[in-house]
């Protein structure tokens, strides 16, 4: 009975493998891939935690506005006191209560320090902005990475289609060669050449299939999908915004690129740092208050074994005189750091301008290359048809036929890659502006 059940299950599995080994297929556009990456990519989750840390640090700095309150107690053993004459000739032991204790509460509130607390809070806020901008930059990097992998999958699918189409043609040609061979019109080596051509195509198809598996696995992890998901790109291959002009993208980068925004914020950080340094030139004014309770009372004779309490409140004023000399040098350091931040801003802008210029030129080039490859593909197809007709009429040899097929295959692959390269260069252009 058990054997029959196993046999039945084996038949079901053999007949319906999809029920047991189903693979999820997802058709996605480039924008959908980018959105999934923003939601699920682990790198962005790590970067987002930096923002939470920066926000919490701001809250910690704000605590400086609150008063400092301390409570203390001590329990101690009090030994007897000894009174000695001035000439050390006689001494008298004065008995003391041996158990002693004290309790105290003290509160201090900073009143004035040249705006140090508020400036420190503002500095923490600027650090928070930098964390947000770092996240924006990481988002751009992650989106471009997953879109690049997505386009690689797209490219492989197109290449697979090209290989399969050429394999069908090669199989048809092999059938004709086999007929010629049976009729004694060609030798056996012609058949072998045709079979080898198909094997070469099979090898290319196998390599593409394995590369696609690797890309799908990596892309699925980045998008938070099951690792056996097969991603099918459905992005339109239409040329996007090719006639706007480079000035548009340069201005867009100046307004939107997170690296430029970070450089500007670093200048603000340098300014705020100078303001904080200058607060050292100001006196510190603080209010304080406290209450102390102590036993025994030892400031009278005889000593009284009782608690004596008292409270105090007031304002303290302090000033570090050495800051008159030290602060000046620290301000000079802050000014140098601010000048460096300005130069870094100029350098960042120049690098971004060069990056946008290169990306724009390459995008325009990719469009022109696609047109050239399309023309080459048409010529290669025409050459293949002419050579095939000549071969079927015994006016061309097998080597010419294989050369024509190889040219056709290569031109079709080049055009398929050129179409995807247009999309790649377009998204690279958007990344260079910080608006991907």
TrEMBL record:
It holds the Pfam family OEP. Residues 1-22 form the signal peptide. This is Outer membrane protein TolC. It is found in: Cell outer membrane. Gene3D superfamilies: Outer membrane efflux proteins (OEP) (1.20.1600.10). Residues 392-419 form a coiled coil. InterPro entries: OMP_efflux (IPR003423), TolC-like (IPR051906). Its main location: membrane. Keywords: Cell outer membrane, Coiled coil, Membrane, Signal, Transmembrane, Transmembrane beta strand, Transport. One of its GO terms (molecular function) is porin activity. Belongs to the outer membrane factor (OMF) (TC 1.B.17) family. One of its GO terms (cellular component) is efflux pump complex.
């Amino acid at each position: 009975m058990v054997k029959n059940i196993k046999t039945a299950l084996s038949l079901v599995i053999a007949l319906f493998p999809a029920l047991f080994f189903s693979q999820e297929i997802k058709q996605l556009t480039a924008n959908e891939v980018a959105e999934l990456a923003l939601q699920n990519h682990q790198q962005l989750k790590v970067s987002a935690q930096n923002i939470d840390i920066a926000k919490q640090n701001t809250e910690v700095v704000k605590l400086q506005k609150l008063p400092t309150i301390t409570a203390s107690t001590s329990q101690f053993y009090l030994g007897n006191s000894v009174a000695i004459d001035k000439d050390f000739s006689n001494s008298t032991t004065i008995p003391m209560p041996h158990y002693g204790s004290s309790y105290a509460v003290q509160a201090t509130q900073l009143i004035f320090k040249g705006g140090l607390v508020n400036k420190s809070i503002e500095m923490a806020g600027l650090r928070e902005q930098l964390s947000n901008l770092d996240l924006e930059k990481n988002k751009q990097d992650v989106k471009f990475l997953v879109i690049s992998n997505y386009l690689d999958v797209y490219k492989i699918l197109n290449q697979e289609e090209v290989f399969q189409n050429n394999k069908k043609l090669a199989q048809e040609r092999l059938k004709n060669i086999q007929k010629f061979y049976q009729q004694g019109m060609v030798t056996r080596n012609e058949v072998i050449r045709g079979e080898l051509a198909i094997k070469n195509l099979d090898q290319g198809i196998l390599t593409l299939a394995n590369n696609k598996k690797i890309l799908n696995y990596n892309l699925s992890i980045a998008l938070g999908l099951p690792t056996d998901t097969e991603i099918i790109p459905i992005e339109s291959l239409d040329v996007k915004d090719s006639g706007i002009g480079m000035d548009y993208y340069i201005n867009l980068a100046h307004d939107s690129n997170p690296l430029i925004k970070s450089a500007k914020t670093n200048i603000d950080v340098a300014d705020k740092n100078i303001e904080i340094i200058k607060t050292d030139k100001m006196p510190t004014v603080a209010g304080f208050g406290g209450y102390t309770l102590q036993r025994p009372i030892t400031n009278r004779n005889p000593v009284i074994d009782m608690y004596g309490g008292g409270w105090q409140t007031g304002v303290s004023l302090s000033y570090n005189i050495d800051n008159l000399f030290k602060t000046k040098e620290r301000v000079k350091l802050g000014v140098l750091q601010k000048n460096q931040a300005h130069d870094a801003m100029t350098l960042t802008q120049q690098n971004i301008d060069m990056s946008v210029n290169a990306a724009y030129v390459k995008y325009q080039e990719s469009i022109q290359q696609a047109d050239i490859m399309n023309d080459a593909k048409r010529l290669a197809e025409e050459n293949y048809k002419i050579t095939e007709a000549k071969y079927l009429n015994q006016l061309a040899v097998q080597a010419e036929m294989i050369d024509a097929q190889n040219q056709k295959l290569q031109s079709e692959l080049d055009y398929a890659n050129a179409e995807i390269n247009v999309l790649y260069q377009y998204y690279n252009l958007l990344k260079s502006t910080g608006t991907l």
